[in-house]
Amino acid sequence: MKRWFNNNVNIFYHHFCKKVDPNDKRHGGELVASVLKAQGVQHIFTLSGGHIAPVLTGAEKLGIRIVDTRHEVTTVFAADASARLSGIPGIAVVTAGPGVTNTITAVKNAQMAESPIILMGGAAAGILKGRGALQDIEQAQLFKTITKKQFIVEKVRDIVPMMKEAFQLAQSGTPGPVYVELPIDILYPYNIIAKEFVSQTSSKTMQGKFVNWYLENYLKNLFAGAWDGELDLKPLPVDIPYPTESDISKAIDLLREAKRPLVILGSQSVLPPVGADNLRKAVEELGIPCYLGGMSRGLLGRNSPINMRQARRDALRDADLVILGGSVADFRLSYGRVFSKKSKIIAINRNKEQLYKNAGIFWQPSLAIQGDPAKFFVQIVDKFRSTNKYNVDTEWVKMLRDRDQEKESKAMQMASGKTDQHLNPLKVLSTLDETFDEKTVLVADGGDFVGSAAYILRPRGPLTWLDPGAFGTLGVGAGFAIGAKLCRPDHDVVVIFGDGSLGYSLAEFDTMVRHNLPIMAVVGNDACWTQIAREQIPMLGSDVSCNLAFCNYENAVEGLGASGIKLDANENDKLKEMFQEAQKRVRDGKPVLVNVLIGKSNMKLLQIGRSLLLSSSSNSRITQQRQYELFVSRRTLVSNTDYKRFLIENAYIGGEWRPSISGKQFDVFNPANNELIGNVTECNRQDAIDAVNAAKEAFRTWSSTTAKERAQLLQKLYQSQMEHSEQLAQLITIEMGKPIREARGEIVYGASFLEWFAEEARRVNGAILQSPWKDKQLTYRREPCGVVGIITPWNFPNAMITRKLAAALAVGCTVVIKPAEDTPYSALALADLAEKVGFPPGVINILPTSRTMTPEIGNYLCDTPDISVISFTGSTEVGKYLLKRGSDTVKRIVMELGGDAPFIVFNSADIAKAVDGLIVAKFRNAGQTCVCANRIFVQDGIHDQFVTELSNRMKNELIIGNGMDDRTTIGPLINDRAIAKVRSHIDDALANGAQLVQGGKKVNPDDDRCYFYEPTLLTGVNESMIISKEETFGPVAAILKFKNEDDVLQMANNCRRGLAGYFYSRNYAQIDRISRRLEVGMVGINDGLLSTCEAPFGGVKESGLGREGSHFGVDEFVNVKYVCLGGLQP
Q: Is residue 584 flagged as an active site residue?
């Protein structure tokens, strides 16, 4: 209907504005070709198909070379290589259906390699969409997550503007693939489409006449205005982020301070428009030692004194400044673990997500610049030219060069050794390297053999090395080589294959022969997936699926018209001559494959599988910090990250933003500097009455919505929170002081409950029970309780709300929220997002108020019968009060109260991991969490060692500062009362015999406006001290020594609170015993961060009632109703 309407409202357009000539032989394929020609495209890679033939014929007429391959995936790989080497987006054109779907792996590879390509896919005619046409599928949907944009061209006149935009987008910002869908009816000439779709004879029936009339109008609208006037083919401007002058000045300051700087360059550094040659000049003039990766390999030529190739991990350990020029802290840099904690890091990347990848876990940029890496180095050098030239310490360069040469010598020694059979792969590669001239382009496609090649072979110059990139795709070889040879026809192109990867490319030797593309391929044939087998066999004791055969690949390519050479042990002394023979055949115009039978070497160089496996030794730490620190990969791309848009001063009641009835306001201060953030309306009892009435009224309709409707809104709220995550994180830090890294983590953590309960909403089910009577059916259902009053603390101003709110909304309850007086803005921001995504008025209500008015509102929420449930997080004392107050109306009270968590370290523990866990469990949020480790018990056998390790880590890792500084790990306490409590606990402990190891003082003790307290370590603590009896809620680690299990359990359980507990042990029998005997609601074993939306959160004893999160979370907000249906026929 929509398409019918859109077509017919355009009748005026094609009848009166833009006439259509039915005899015009021009077609849409020619328009596509015209745009390609104007953009400088010289090659199209394709596999033929009827849907796309007009594009190919149109391009051929304009002199664009058409290269048809044997598989669609090769078209994209070839386009990828073409884009990398030419600087012009690569073009792949494939037919509809399977033609398009066959490209997906290659498109994803191009996305991760940041290659600007345009994939054009044929498609069924627009009028036949969804009607069962041949190869008609929703193609664009398949590319939503792997391309920058998906265009579907619906009219011929839209071809040129959409194609121009596709070129612009592919090259702007972070380059990447763009998908353009070209339905068949916009590509062929008018008369051909008319014959296909419009009846050539008049119909006698009314219906037939209407159908013909409709089809004629549809067709005319397709072609109307396509060739009117002169076509505007001028390319659109490309938008590329560049470093600012401020960025450059800061970087220069860091460089001048550095004694041992190091540069790590990635593929992004050689992207246009700066160009690899200009980058090379800048890097050489700067003179800082470099490691080159990806497409930047070869940038500095074969023998540059500053190009280091070996011992990178050692160099990173010793460097005091590391510059990441387009390199990413992913698996290739061990997720950032390779960086020294003492190093300063300058990261430059066009892509914000890649810029901060894994930051906050193992590394942190001292200066993060979203901009073009090559431009950064050019600007740096220009700046130094205008001031004082930058000089690198020659001793530092010499040390790295000596290490490099030492490793190179060892590799050469290994190359001279013998293998179990066939040829030594390292000797093969070393000999091959000797045969390359200065214009050779190398293509890498494979695992173990190719990994060794990356260390042995030396690319001769800029843009002479092609590998798949971060995705690690096998099968790129032939496509990359074809694209490279077309871009560099006067260069030798050599592909290094593993025998596993070669299988994907064999058929393309036919393509090379047909298109006269003489390419040399060298395959390291060891009849095995060696890289996989090397890990699998020792770990799992089996080589299943790892073995191949020593295939005669040389015969296979000869069958396709190429030339084949086989090398085995018999040619050990003639390797150079045989490679030179292969070169001669290539230069004579024929593709050649050299099938080299190799044995196993002991050189384990580039092993992605191994690096991933080794990194899993820290996987528990990654899992622990997943919710709170692995935030950057999901950082918002919102251009305005200013939190100030969420400084809302009014209450949110019944869908309206309104001041309180009293008109009064209260002040909100930033605890980091005690400066006023703003004024917020001070709600009172009457405002609370209005909010409860609004929620009660909204409950009538909200409770009757479907679970699917509620789930969709929660999902939208989740997405909105993630889109605004940086603004919301800044808001948290400004309001309550926690480090921005933790605040970002809280936003992800808080959002996870919105997502989780969006899914749980559709699983709140009842059941049919087995009846003892034949004439009765027994069922039960779970129904929403009604209006929920939510009272939340300041320490997690977002997550403590979403954990309660999402569960209540999911089952159909409405809510009235009283946020903490210190942090009202985060609650109001959440309401703002909820309103914008479509939550109905009255479903969510926010009552900000001061500390003075809090009791009045809290009392009303407990007293009114219109509130069915109170969900509270806070102190045990307040929880007890609410429980008593709510008893008059028999109100359900859900409470998460104080913790006083024990943290036990047994003699069998891994001390380093226990310290890791304690740093998180104790000092996260400056110790201001309900699950914070308050009483730290360390067994006597490891006590001294543990204390020493902990003290060292605290000194090196805990950095006090304003939370908005990315380097900060310890923010302020919330207010002066918190400072006083921490001080009193420390004073009492010291007065009763505890020893102060470090810390123990307020920062700037004479400044009443300063709420920072030094991270403090106490030993010799005992049970008689206040710090062992009360939650400190501050950055104080109090160590109690113990002798045995019974003693520590008696001390740990000698407490009326039991929220969380932690212990570290490698004795599995002990783990089972302790986990059973600890009197807490949650236990972290060898783990210091245990909260996640999937698990039930709550305590025992006086730590609360009920559970939050997990599938138990909805139980607190539903009533179970039993229904007995009688009078049935037995």
A: no
Assess contact for 1064 and 1086: CB atoms under 8 A: yes
Of 813, 862, 930, 1055, the active-site residue reads 930
Helices (H), 155-238: 159-171, 190-197, 206-223
d(CA 543, CA 938): 45
Residue 257 falls in the annotated catalytic set? no
Task: Name the pairing type of β-strands 651-653 and 656-658.
Answer: antiparallel
Please, are residues 926 and 1016 in contact by the beta-carbon 8 Å criterion?
A: no
Q: pLDDT for 915-970, tens place per residue?
A: 999 999 999 999 999 999 999 999 999 999 999 999 999 998 999 998 988 889 99
818 given a catalytic annotation? yes
Task: Please list, residue by residue across 475-508, b when 16 or more beta carbons sit within 10 angstroms of its beta carbon and e when fewer do.
Answer: bbbbbbbbbbbbbbeebbbbbbbbbbbbbbbbbb
Distance CA 454, CA 429 (A): 10
Catalytic residue among 427, 485, 804, 818: 818
* Residue 48 burial by Cβ neighbours in a 10 Å radius (0-12, 13-18, 19+): middle
Active-site residue, from 742, 755, 896, 1116: 896
Give the span between the Cα atoms of 78 and 511, in whole angstroms: 12
Whole-model pTM: value is 0.57
* Helix (H) or strand (E) run with residue 444 in it: strand 441-445
Residue 1019's identity, in one-letter code, is T
Spans of the chain below 50 pLDDT: 1-9, 11-12, 15-16, 602-641
CA distance 496 to 359: 34
Work out the end-to-end distance of the chain between its first and last CA atoms, rounded to an integer number of angstroms.
Answer: 51
Of residues 755, 1031, 1079, 1108, which has the active-site annotation? 1031
Residue 821 is a catalytic residue: no
What's the pLDDT score for residue 386?
76
CA distance 238 to 273: 10
Peptide bond into 784 cis (omega under 30): no
Helix or strand run (H / E) with residue 1038? strand 1036-1042
3-state helix/strand/coil string of 796-816: CCCHHHHHHHHHHHHHCCEEE
Q: For residue 9, give both structure tokens.
A: 């409202």
Kind and range of the H or E run holding 386 = helix 373-386
Distance CA 1118, CA 463 (A): 64
Residue pair 925/1032 in contact (Cβ under 8 Å)? The answer is: no
pLDDT in tens, 977-1004: 999 999 999 999 999 999 999 999 999 8
Task: From residue 543, give the alpha-carbon distance in Å to each of 373, 421, 534.
Answer: 43, 19, 9
Q: Report strand pairing: 675-681 vs 665-670.
A: antiparallel
d(CA 931, CA 67): 63
Q: Which residue has the tokens 């044995």?
A: 599
Closest to 107 measured CA to CA, from 120, 124, 122, 88: 120
Any idea of the CA torsion for 190, 196, 197, 199, to the nearest 10 degrees?
100
SS3 592: strand
Torsion of CA 680, 681, 684, 688, to 10 degrees: -90
- Are residues 1012 and 973 in contact, defined by beta-carbon separation less than 8 angstroms? yes
Helix boundaries (H) for 258-320: 276-286, 312-318
User: 180 vs 84, 143, 944, 1007, CA distance in Å?
Assistant: 20, 10, 66, 63
Q: Output the CA angle 249-250-254, nearest 5 degrees.
A: 115
Phi-psi domain of 239 (left: phi exceeds 0; alpha: psi -120 through 50; beta: other) = beta
Distance CA 819, CA 791 (A): 6
Strands 150-152 and 117-123: unpaired
d(CA 801, CA 791): 8
Longest dimension (CA), the chain: 107
